[in-house]
């Protein structure tokens, strides 16, 4: 069984999700629930800090794809930061950098919301 945890923090109207462990078919529903809760509460400016993300599968990537349209339709976005090189390579391989802002640091991701 893979270990997985989501910690939620906020900075002004921006929600920061620290994702820890392995995001795969078994743990993806936990992230889905968290994103749905945020959308339902109209928190649509989200930074995903991946510094603790050790592994992501296609199921994990699918969660991001499933919710981005809803979030952007409410003038929000998901910014992704602090990915480890091997996790970034998975995002990169599937073309995520053309769809999402993937930034080196959380501060850069937060700044992108300030500049919108």
From the structure above, extract its key features:
116 residues, alpha/beta, Transcription Regulator spoIIAA, five-stranded mixed sheet, 5 helices
Textual characterization of the structure:
There is one protein chain. The protein has 116 residues and is α/β, with parallel strands linked by helices. The protein has one domain: Transcription Regulator spoIIAA, CATH 3.30.750.24. Helix content is 44%, strand content 33%. It contains five helices and five strands, in the order ββαβαβααβα. The chain has a five-stranded mixed beta sheet, with helices on both faces. Helix 1 runs parallel beside helix 2.
* Fourth-level CATH superfamily: STAS domain
Q: How much β-strand is present in the residues? A: 25-35%
Tell me, briefly, the overall form: globular
Lateral arrangement of strands in the main beta sheet = 1-2-3-4-5
Question: CATH topology, which one?
Answer: Transcription Regulator spoIIAA
Kindly give the count of domains. Answer: 1
Q: How much helicity do the residues have? A: 40-55%
The largest sheet, given as strand count, sense and whether it forms a barrel, is: 5 strands, mixed
Order of helices and strands: EEHEHEHHEH
**Separate helix tally:** 5
Radius of gyration based on Cα positions: 13 Å
**What is the average of the pLDDT values?**
95
CATH architecture: 2-Layer Sandwich
Report the structural category: alpha/beta
Q: Would you report the number of β strands? A: 5
Give the quaternary arrangement of the chains: single chain
What's the level 1 CATH class? Alpha Beta
Low-confidence stretches: none
Cα(first) to Cα(last) distance is 40 Å
